Amino acid sequence: MEIDGKTEKVGLIGHPVSHSFSPVMHNAAFEFLKMNYVYTAFDVKPESIREAVQGLSALGFKGVNVTVPHKESVIPFMDSLSDEAKIIGAVNTIKFSDEEIKGYNTDAYGFSAAIEKAFSIKLEGKKIFVIGAGGGAKAVATQSAIDGAKKITVTDISEGKAEQLTNNIRKNICSVQIEAVKTESREMKNAVEDADIIINATPLGMKDKDPIPIDTNLIGKGQKIFDLIYNPKETKLMKEAQMKGCEVSNGLMMLLYQGMKSFEIWTGIRPPEEVMKKKLESRVFGGK
């Protein structure tokens, strides 16, 4: 990749960003397509987010991804939001143009595409159980509602967060059947047992000492388990679910597809999936 005066600029803003795999997969796609673009990560402290957004626009950036802790705090600096970003209340992709600064949320699209890839099914008509009510859970639950899930149940150790998430989706998508349930309640256990797809949208599983986020005695053969965590490649939840005859998937494909959608928003070109996937797997799993 040769950078010159005509190189188009895209990137990532967050705090921290040193752990991000986004530059690797995007730059691999640009190189493969022989596009004169470069993707760079920028560590932006929370108190500097306004200046960062305005500065990137002034410097002629085509767009950026947005990661924690800025997905909500960038919203006041957007001229407009995509429909899903409005409902979710979070932005993970910004597109800069002469006309406006527009915020998108491609996490939601990435989740839907990853589910279809992993399990060869669509979210439409499915009963979904979501563990967690943070940023990832917002994207998961919102896309499930948009795609026509039959029922969505959300639980979180913070009952208020789960209620806020479900109320917001219900307000924006009137036809959806969605509810928040207390952790370890009978309602929660019934929802787990009845679910077609169970999604872990919490950080539990990233460390060896972490507990499994739900009682795996409640799950069984035929259910699909999707864990947003992608490192480690297999979490304790995934391993135990496989032993019970469940189909499982980690979150790597969600990371890939949200990145591909961002690429398309910025460039108008669909990037090479296999090129980005191989580069991502090589960096995350060390080629294993």
Mean pLDDT level: 95
Q: Whole-Å distance between the termini?
A: 26 Å
List the strand order in the largest sheet.
Answer: 2-1-3-5-6-4
Q: Given the helix and strand composition, which structural class is it?
A: alpha/beta
Individual helix count:
10
Radius of gyration: 19 Å
The geometry reads as globular
Order of helices and strands: EHEHEEHEEHEHEHEHEEHEHH
What are the segments in which pLDDT stays under 50 over at least 5 consecutive residues? none
> How much beta, percentage-wise?
15-25%
Q: Could you describe the largest sheet, including whether it forms a barrel?
A: 6 strands, mixed
Oligomer: single chain
Q: Helix coverage percent of residues? A: 25-40%
**Strand segment tally:** 12
Which SSEs are present, and which pair or pack?
Elements: E1 8-14, H1 22-32, E2 37-43, H2 49-58, E3 63-66, E4 80-81, H3 83-88, E5 93-96, E6 101-104, H4 106-119, E7 127-131, H5 135-146, E8 151-155, H6 159-172, E9 178-181, H7 186-194, E10 197-200, E11 224-227, H8 236-243, E12 247-249, H9 252-267, H10 273-285
Parallel strand pairs: 1-2, 1-3, 4-6, 7-8, 7-10, 8-9, 10-11, 11-12
Antiparallel strand pairs: 3-5, 5-6
